[in-house]
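RETRY 2/3 - previous attempt timed out on the joint model. Re-submitting the same 656-residue input unchanged.
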Amino acid sequence: MENDILLEVKNLCTYFSTEKGKLRAVDHISFSVKEKEIVGIVGESGCGKSVTAESIMRLLDEKNLVSYEGEILYKGNNLLSLKKNEMQEVRGKEIAMIFQDPMTSLNPVYTIGNQIVEGILTHQKISKKEAKQKAIDLLRFTEIPSPEKRFDQYPHELSGGMRQRVMIALALACNPKLLIADEPTTALDVTTQSQILDLLNKLKDELNMSTIMITHDLGVVAELCSRVIVMYLGQIIEIANVEDIFDSAQHPYTEGLLNSIPHIDGDRSKKLNVIQGTVPTLDKVPVGCNFAGRCQYATDKCREVEPELKEVMDNHFVKCWNYELIRKTNKEENEIATPY
Amino acid sequence: MINYVFKRILSVIPVLLIVAVVVFSITYLTPGDPARVILGADATETEVIELQEKMGLNDSPIEQFTRWFGNLLQGDLGDSYFMNKSVMAAFADHFMPTLSLALMAQLIAILIALPLGIFAAVRRGSVLDQTVMGISLIGISVPSFLLALILVLIFSVNLGLLPVAGYQPLTAGLDMHLRYLLMPAVALGAMQAALITRMTRSAMLEVFNNNYIKTAHSKGVKEKKVLFKHALRNAALPILTVIGQTFGVLITGAAVVETVFNIPGIGQLIINSVERRDFPVIQGVVLLISITYVLLNLIIDLLYGVLDPRIRLDKK
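RETRY 2/3 succeeded.
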């Protein structure tokens, strides 16, 4: 069982040095991704999802005054202890990433083909001609119509959905084992969204890839993921299999997320449930449980002592003092309807 | 691309027409009768009237403009009142030193500014970045004549390395040519260098924030390649704009430096002509400089198209 773990994140902390001092954007998170598994990371904006992803890729090195703690073990090697050039070998070749906004993720002054070929040639010693053929094959694999023609086109000549397919082709260029998809469908319209999700599913089945799916859309999670990680303010507050999240969410925040999904068959005059308040900024992280300020179940204990992430059921971890109480209330309320 | 080039070239024509009209009206906007200016204070009234008649100054402005413009289209800008030669010839004589000076100043500016700007952007916030930015601020603030005098003081008066002033044409040998132009070019180019450095830095910083830079990193592309292939090409447009504009300023604004170093360039020609009210020369030189400016901008526009497919392929 342990052997098929591809990526293991242990106690990862990511800090940014800012004018307000050193901020902890990711706070002691631990999780693992198995081979051929699609893991979802969900949470509101600013909860540390993207920072987690970019920490794994070490993309933050390039930009900010950033420091890490903990370990990111990829096939047993700690990525955080790799040198810059060693990390460049991992990027694209072992772990690839696609981003939220396909409109701006491709370089506007180079052709699609140029950018995919560049990715291929960065890691593979093959001729330009072979690389071009491979790029066209990749475009075809991602179901882009007339790939030979697209090869010579510029990003601005393609639609958003097409560009996201190009991004996926780019990510697949060197057969990575792990794909990190950072909100890949958020900027797309609904029909395009589902096509892209189908494509991501195909990657798992046909290429045996693992995927970390970062999203705030629980619909995407339901459709794609086998396991879900819920994050709040830099911390993991719940990890469970996807059915368990939808059937028996334990954390009040997860419950809130689920309740805030509108139902087509619901009473439209009724107001949608929302989680009160907003995510506090990183320089104002509360003592005790991070969510206590917005939690309807919060007690004095919650506001003083931080709960541990603990296994409450088989493979179901929750970071909450009151999960039993919540489970009970939910049962009494005749359980929350699952939307999917 | 052909479409784009064609459209850009077409768009130059109305601009040049407007320039021609404005330039022509200089004669009417400035006080003083050309005939009287040519003949001097001692001329009799009959002589003045005779000359006015001969020069066609009594014709209507429209008639005069048509005549002037007709000649212009044939490349004839008229003759100087004072220098026994045509305006074209006078311009040609004085243009080479100015062009040489401007090119050299621009070259020095670009060679200094591009690497410094890129470097400052990559190491933003570092001591080096702050030093470069500080120096460039000084570069923008110090007037060129002051810098020229300081350079003369150091390199000519104290060290005796370079000539104090003067000009040698290219025909006198490249090394002589460069020896005389080096200090003027540095004095003239310093401000451009400062401007281009700052623009390069800010353009690069803006590009760094773009997602495609993150994409390039996520592909495992080497740092240098990300910088020069992905970032610089995108930052090139604003940098190019500044270079183009400053080159125009170099050509027109060299007058001060030309005066300090006694270089017989366009600046001197203009100053002398204005002092003598040599209207054909003023008109001709202003027109030719405007044309240079417009053509320069045209070249920059065309380069935009080369660099950025979104401009080149725009169908609108």
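The mean pLDDT of chain B is 85. Closing ticket.
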